[in-house]
Amino acid sequence: MKAIIIGGGIIGSSIAWRLAREGVAAIVLERARIGQEASWAAAGMIAPQAEAQGSGLFFDLCLAARRSFDASIDRLIAESGVDPEYDPHGILYLALDAAEQAELQGRARWHREAGALVEELTPAAARKVEPAISPDTVYALHLADNRRVDNRKLTHAYAAAAIKAGADFREGVRVDSIVAANGRATGVLIHDGAILEADLIVVAAGAWSHELRGLEADRVKLHPVRGQMVCFEARPQLIAPAIFSMRGYLVPRRDGRILSGSTMEEAGYNKSVTLAGLDKIARGALAMVPGLGELPLREAWAGLRPATRDLLPVLGASPSVAGVIWATGHFRSGILLSMLTGEVIADVAMGRRPAIDLAPFSAARFANQ
User: What is the set of domains in the chain, with CATH numbers?
Assistant: First the structure.
């Protein structure tokens, strides 16, 4: 089987790894640089309990995603030769006033009802987990089995493992449309007018996925949601867990960097870093850990999250064109969902039954919208 994967971010690279391991001749076509869009801009949380806003379909998907990481991360490291820093330090979710405490107490209830591990902490107990937190902390949740990863290294690991397994990555190649005959995809038309033939096409182009011609009948629409991030220099282990609140989050790296984010902005395809964005992030960071105020700024950046109308990913076969599989629209959770997405898309490609029910994430849900 020959497969073309449109998009060389973390999702496309994960799928390429899984398909190449199956003996599929996988070709990844990336319009710009491999892993340099949303995958590069993220914080790297493997955190179902921080990402989901309630129990149900999306939370179950996120829990399955974490299980997929736990089952496959060692294999990825061995096959890629890259350590993506899959760290187990958990998340401390802070409430800094009474309203935030009420919100987190509600979150703790549905976590327990869904069978997730959550510990409610007094301010004194929270400071034992992380002494640097704000004295304004009135309550906290400890999400001990949520994890984090260096998303840039993880994307590199997927791509490196895929290449070692035989995948072909091509940068600077923009796909214009699907080429089909008798209702089945036969290849893609690229920007220079050439046609590349394939047995299978996987659409994993993030916020640009809906620009692909030939799949209009699927009615998949995505829009970019800008997220700005700030990175500070610090000594390693200045803070151990990732720290969340209603005002933002802090994610430490092994080398001492601390990432702080993030904004949620409707700004089209504009990836500018703005003064207002930096101000919001800085205020949130200082509210959680006031001692960060003297840290030197290292860099700031922005990325574009690919969002669907219902904020759920699009996974599985195209309803209108045989031989096409969607793998896009991961919004805020592309890093978390990357391992599972590679796994289930490979299952669909090889004719196996995926470990999760993909029907709720099918493009068919947009038929009447």
Answer: 2-80+151-220+310-366 (3.50.50.60), 91-144+223-307 (3.30.9.10)
User: E-assigned strands of the chain?
Assistant: 2-6, 25-30, 45-46, 91-95, 119-121, 139-143, 147-148, 168-171, 175-181, 184-190, 195-197, 200-203, 223-232, 242-245, 248-252, 258-261, 297-307, 314-317, 324-328
Q: Rounded to two decimals, what is the model's pTM?
A: 0.97
b/e per residue, 59-98, with b = 16+ CB within 10 A? bbbbbbbbebbeebbeebeebbebebbbbebbbbbbbbee
The DSSP output letter for 80 is H
Place of tokens 């289930």: 344
Residues β-bridged to residue 327: 315
**Measured distance between the N- and C-terminal CA atoms of the chain, rounded to whole angstroms:** 34
- If phi > 0 it is left, if psi is from -120 to 50 it is alpha, else beta; for residue 24 that is beta
Split at pLDDT 50, 70, 90, the class of 368 is confident
Q: Tokens 């998303």 — which residue?
A: 151
Nearest-angstrom CA–CA distance, 118 and 28: 40
User: Rounded to an integer, what distance in angstroms lies between the CA atom of residue 159 and that of residue 28?
Assistant: 10
Structure tokens given for 220: 């998949």
Over residues 205-228, the pLDDT tens digits come to 999 999 999 999 999 999 999 999
